[in-house]
Amino acid sequence: MSWTLTADLVPALARGAAVLGTGGGGDPYIGSLLAKQALAEHGEVTVVTLDEVPDDALVLTVAMMGAPTVMVEKLPSLDEVIAPVAALGTYLGRPVTHIACAEVGGVNSTIPVAAAAALGLPLIDGDGMGRAFPELQMVLPTLYGVTASPLAFSDEKGNVGVLQTVDNHWTERIARVACVEMGCSIMISGFPMEGAVAREALVPGSLQHCIAIGAGIADARAAKEDAVGRTVELLGGREFFAGKVVDVHRGTTSGFARGTARIENPSCTLTLSFQNEHLIAEADGEVLVTTPDLIIVLDHDSGEPITTEGLRYGQRVRVVAAPSDPRWHSADALAMVGPGYFGYDVPSHRFDGTQEAAVAAEPAEATA
User: What is the DSSP string of 284-342?
Assistant: First the structure.
């Protein structure tokens, strides 16, 4: 059933999306501000379930592309958010009927809220990942043959463009170059699909899941209960490490925030490697969890999610692993988002510590 997304739900949505963002996806606070501004100026957003989307609907995803660290400095405007949707509607020669999240993690859960409010369109309660990933082609619709292009993009200066590419990897390559030239942070709209395809390719119920996680953290804290434990329960995951952040190396290269973080406790040292999102967790050289399952860093006491750009020396944190959508564990999906794709010569390690069979992966530099 459809429901109404109001401004009072935005904080829980953003907090839950920061959890599912696995360290990446952009600062949820910035996305909250943008969503609240759009809701205040244009009214509430109607959210529809996937089974309510007509077969012949034209669904577009809306997202921020670029390094999350840059977005903190380069705040987007509503005009920048809706420009790609308008450009793509014109290019396709059809009215856009629904907005969807490309990824539910981080700021890309709330930017589509702003777009839907400003455009007066319904928002789909679903997304293309069930989490966040660093590259544009890394969505479940790719596995269903949905093309990322035509893809429209815009920046804060008013530049707008539309790409038509031969496949989703080329969309990522060309758009990433444009993103770097336009300041390492742009707004995009793409993956045009009809309703029948969206119902099959998207992850259902993503927005409600985010709100439940975000509200669960707040409720646990108010009741003086363990907010991390509540989050683990809602995710169906496990807490696998706790300690103090002792070192963070981070830099913006090729439009990504890349780096490592070391977390220590009296027993051992955990190393997290990330490219926008956390990709691999190792304890004293032993791999514990890898992409595509979720690796999430939470504040030790409050349970608030900590993004990769928010990691700081001295923070006391707890690290949680959670399962991803089952479709991410097919051979084709692991070749696209598994550790091998990012240059780690290890098999995928699930949230529960079990290993998956190794699969061939294209080298990461193929789409850098």
Answer: TTEEEEETTSEEEEEETTT--B--GGG--TT-EEEEEEE---GGGGSHHHHHHHSTTTT
Task: Identify the pLDDT of residue 359.
Answer: 58
Residue 355 in tokens: 């290993």
Tokens of 100: 């969807």
For 313, other C-beta atoms within 10 Å of its C-beta total: 11
**What are the helix and strand counts (H, E) for the chain?**
11, 16
Task: Decide: residue 93, CB within 10 A, 0-12 exposed, 13-18 middle, 19+ buried.
Answer: exposed
Radius of gyration of the chain (CA): 19
Distance from C-alpha of 9 to C-alpha of 216, rounded to nearest angstrom: 13
- Rounded to two decimals, what is the model's pTM? 0.93
3-class SS shares of the chain: helix, strand, coil, % to 5: 35, 30, 35
